[in-house]
Amino acid sequence: MSHPDPTLTYPQAIITGLIQGVTELFPVSSLGHNVLLPAIVGGSWETDLNVAANGSPYLAFVVGLHVATAIGIMIYFWRDWVRIVRGFFSSIRHRRVQTVDEKLCWFLIVATIPVGLVGLLFEHEFRELFAKPIRAAIFLVVNGVILYAGERFRTRRSKQADADQAARRAQLATVPSGGGAFAEGGAPGTPRRPAAAHASGHRAIRRQEELQALESDVRLAETGFVEAVIIGSAQILALLAGISRDGVTMVAGMFRGLSREDAARFAFLLATPVILAAGVLKLPDLTGPDSHGIQGQILVGSILSGVGAYLSVRFLVRYFQTRTLTPFAVYCVVFGLASIVYLQLK
């Protein structure tokens, strides 16, 4: 008896699109959820949404979600990426890596190389071997342990950096918009703060966020190329379904002395080229025969994924200024263990 070809429904596209957009930035592993959700729901979901199956339309769908997720993150950080791209061309033109933007640009490049090489060489093997529901559940538990250990065993330097930045935020809250560390006359190569203006409400909040981002980049520019490579290499673990790219990158950053806020910012900036490159490299899946008949579902899911990514990064940038990875660690361990039990009994 022949079975109908696997398909993708609009409810599946809507739910998985939203989950992808949110979990890609939250340190809980989007790939792990993409693997576990169909197995837990069962039925046509398990058949149609098997990311490990060759020829599955779900692969083309996931490519669309990744591209949209990267676009959502880029929209939030568009001012930062304009500066970073300018820093790249400036460093090429002047044959130097001197200013904050130039350093940050090249830090992001060298930090992306390790995971890029491993992904190109072994992505298929990782997906075939580890993108299985029970293994994803196990690695989700491991991810929770990594997040908890990252908070429990933070270095003294990382904790001190948190305290210093908390004091700085308190200072900024009492400084008129015309003052601050990035006013005219700052050090050469230091980004200038947004133009002075007496803003209120959302504009005032946004201006303060821009200033904090600029100051964070100054601190990140002091880390060095070796530190950037070490932190970026942590992303390789995220090729395992269940391990969060942003989570392990944050933990690596804090282990190397970054504050939680700076580690999160570096992780989010690093995520953009990696996610976008992974999507672009898989574009043949999106435009090939595997996507036939599900273009509408891909479009709907991708829009929701992009919106979810934008809202998630907007929330998390503020969240990690004052809060920890511990709630996400608890979630990963509980959900991972519950999934293991369910899948064993299923």
In words, what does this structure look like?
The protein is mainly alpha-helical. The protein has one domain. The protein contains 15 helices and no strands. It has helices at 10-25, 30-41, 44-48, 57-76, 78-94, 100-130, 133-152, 156-172, 201-220, 225-233, 245-255, 260-281, 283-287, 295-322, 326-345. Helix 1 (10-25) runs antiparallel to helix 2 (30-41) and helix 6 packs across helix 12 (260-281). The longest helix is centred in the N-terminal third of the chain and has 31 residues, at 100-130. It is globular. Residues 1-6, 179-188 and 195-199 have low confidence and may be disordered.
Q: Which key phrases capture this entry?
A:
15 helices; mainly alpha; 346 residues; disordered N terminus
Write the element-wise H/E pattern from the N-terminal end onward: HHHHHHHHHHHHHHH
**Average predicted confidence as pLDDT:** 85
- The helical percent reads over 70%
Shape: globular
| Biggest sheet statistics | none
How large is the count of helical segments?
15
Question: Uncertain runs with pLDDT below 50, 5 residues or more?
Answer: 1-6, 179-188, 195-199
- Count structural domains: 1
How many beta-strand elements?
0
- Beginning-to-end CA distance, first to last residue: 25 Å
Helices and strands, with pairings:
Elements: H1 10-25, H2 30-41, H3 44-48, H4 57-76, H5 78-94, H6 100-130, H7 133-152, H8 156-172, H9 201-220, H10 225-233, H11 245-255, H12 260-281, H13 283-287, H14 295-322, H15 326-345
Helix pairs in contact: 1-2, 1-4, 1-14, 2-7, 4-12, 4-14, 5-6, 6-10, 6-12, 7-11, 7-15, 9-12, 10-11, 11-12, 12-14
